[in-house]
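[INFO] parsing input record for Large ribosomal subunit protein uL22c
[DEBUG] input buffer:
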Amino acid sequence: MLKKKKTEKKKEVYALGQHISMSADKARRVIDQIRGRSYEETLMILELMPYRACYPIFKLVYSAAANASYNMASNEANLVISKAEVNKGTTIKKFKPRARGRSYPIKKPTCHITIVMKDISLDDKYVEIDSLKKTRWKKKHTAAYRDMYSSGGIWDKK
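[DEBUG] output buffer:
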């Protein structure tokens, strides 16, 4: 007896950047800031951060969102970065000629960056965030103006 398979939509897409010429530690510093955030919030963070690692990561996040809209037909407002990781790549080694016939090694590290995005509209456990926000009431500050010379403190005594 044959059973019909249920077709389930893929919930995750990814973008992979390999052999990016920067240290894995420097890229990891930026990746830690965007992990778990929404797509639109991530783009704003990456545009405003002053690190050189932001541009290749920005391109990868943009590419992962394009993959999600093309492959899953999902809206960009529903995308969340579910997993982001940085791995060490190969080290490019060169020799620079120096004085008196010596050579000096130059080592340029590379890294591999993986960005995985999830569509939260396809996931059942996520709830609408806007409806859960509590309204915050503003306190009226009624602090009286205090003059330090007429307050009757130490300086008033003669």
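[INFO] The first helix runs from residue 24 to 34.
[INFO] shutting down worker
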